[in-house]
Amino acid sequence: MSSSSSSHSISPTPLLKDELDIVIPTIRNLDFLEMWRPFFQHYHLIIVQDGDPSKVIKVPEGFDYELYNRNDINKILGPKASCISFKDSACRCFGYMVSKKKYIYTIDDDCFVAKDPSGKDINALEQHIKNLLCPSTPTFFNTLYDPYREGADFVRGYPFSLRMGAPTAVSHGLWLNIPDYDAPTQLVKPRERNQRYVDAVMTIPKGTLFPMCGMNLAFDRELIGPAMYFGLMGDGQPIGRYDDMWAGWCTKVICDHLGLGVKTGLPYIWHSKASDPFVNLRKEYKGIFWQEQLIPFFQAAKLPKACTTVQECYIELSKQVRAELAEVDPYFTKLADAMVTWIEAWDELNPSTTTTA
Ligand SMILES: O=c1ccn([C@@H]2O[C@H](COP(=O)(O)OP(=O)(O)O[C@H]3O[C@@H](CO)[C@H](O)[C@H]3O)[C@@H](O)[C@H]2O)c(=O)[nH]1
Ligand SMILES: [Mn+2]
């Protein structure tokens, strides 16, 4: 592991400066950070270097960071490193596990600062922090979107008994330019760019799943961290590009059970690089069929009242995966095992935290 830091010019203390880590999975040099410097430079970065550990990843001067490559992961986790994917952005979840902070923001290295309709640079991190620090409304939909936002409120007919809302566990941001499409959609619409800036943040209603993208994502690690396992993807696995989807389905079922909120919408980032749709099709291929069985599984998943911590919920979910998804493919038995290993590793690295809502 390597690290670096340097003195910073005096500036107003950014929100949650010492309570949030920025996790970046990467196989490239991190020049993209130059554009984020005004927004990121006061935060600690956790860089998870995927692929060849002997490759040197250049981190621009002036950032406070720790960097873990595959050798570090193997050294820290020993045999439990088997649950951390190799050659897939799913490796980023190792950063969630080693962090000691309450909040996590994760971003891909081909995501840049976007501009809002007025032409102003969007501080995505600041918006995610606002989303996380404000309650969510999972049990009753507010038609004027985020009621806690300046200039908005609960609309007529919204029960006062519900206006306290629920603690927010996840803030899911979106992307201008290259949208996060699956390979078939990318193939039929290679030139499609997302130019639509929708000025809204919404709570995803309780009982509704959603396709969580890991490109521009923040969460409360103390509320939901152990559920953010990005699965077994990439090298040696029959599937890729379903890492964030798997984590999102597990997370949403557990958030619903524990009474936590998940928001989507602002902030936007500018996603600059379309990955190769043919490569993506190979990675996603089985997932496109499997998800037709996975979604009904997660929609029907019930967690016992006795499950009051994220770890207990996650272990229970792993048992249901093992029991009900093995018939889809033997991969899910392996994944159920890896889910247990993930929790064991999480608890080993975070002995004091049993995550309860
Ligand atoms: O083997 C790898 C490949 C990439 N990374 C790092 O992961 C992110 C995302 O990579 P990239 O932008 O090249 O790929 P996308 O298809 O745009 O990624 C989207 O699909 C999701 C699939 O999981 C992903 O979360 C989305 O963002 C970059 O930071 C790469 O450097 C890697 O670590 N290992
Ligand atoms: Mn990308």
Automatic annotation (TrEMBL):
Protein name: UDP-arabinopyranose mutase
InterPro entries: Nucleotide-diphossugar_trans (IPR029044), RGP (IPR004901), RGP_fam (IPR037595)
One Pfam family, short name: RGP
A molecular-function term among this protein's GO annotations: UDP-arabinopyranose mutase activity
Top-rank EC class of the record's enzyme: isomerase
Reported function: Probable UDP-L-arabinose mutase involved in the biosynthesis of cell wall non-cellulosic polysaccharides.
Family stated for the protein in its record: Belongs to the RGP family.
Lineage, top ranks: Eukaryota, Viridiplantae, Streptophyta, Embryophyta, Tracheophyta
Transmembrane feature ranges: none
Subcellular location: Golgi apparatus
Site keyed Required for activity: positions: R156, R163
SUPFAM superfamilies (alphabetical): Nucleotide-diphospho-sugar transferases (SSF53448)
Isomerase recorded as keyword: yes
Enzyme Commission number, as recorded: 5.4.99.30
Catalytic reaction list: UDP-beta-L-arabinofuranose = UDP-beta-L-arabinopyranose
Domain of life: Eukaryota
Glycosites: R156
GO (cellular component) term, any one: plant-type cell wall
GO term, biological process aspect, one: UDP-L-arabinose metabolic process
Keyword terms of this UniProt record: Cell wall biogenesis/degradation, Glycoprotein, Golgi apparatus, Isomerase
